[in-house]
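Before the break, one more example. Copy the sequence into your notebook; we will annotate it together after we see the structure.
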Amino acid sequence: MRPENVCLQCGACCAYYRASFYWAEADPAQGGSVPPELTTQIDLFLVAMKGTEANPPRCIALHGEIGKAVCCTIYEQRPSPCREFPVSWLDGHPNPRCDQARAAWGLPPLRFEDVWGTSQLDLTPPPLPVDVPALSTGALSLPVDGGFAKIGETDSPPQSAPASQAA
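Here is what the structure looks like once it is written out:
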């Protein structure tokens, strides 16, 4: 599963937060890609996606029913706050802001499996190498050059005398 698929069933962040950003992102003359007709001026430096400044907020570019099926009509042209807002578990950690928006719409917080699918989870322990000797003493073994040795046993080269003791 891809994280975008989860967002296509949610849309809570688009109807919970104000998406404000630097005005040049909506100015084609400055290289901006956000359609300027979908923005509203906030102050001298900031614009916001229309609808996200309202109470309750809902982005004008969001189509569909929150929690069921949604899409961003300007996905490829969306502003930086939308591109940078991570779905929970995208980086292996929950995003409290994502979960907060979902809770406001009565949606449960996302779980790792919701974002990445259960096929990504491998909870089986790795197999032990066949040639590992069983330890009857209960001592901790650490790998040493591909083999195992008990703590205190090392195959390290003998230490040379410090330079101050050399003749």
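The helical segments are 3-7, 80-84, 96-104, 112-116. The mean pLDDT is 82. Try to locate both features in your own notes.
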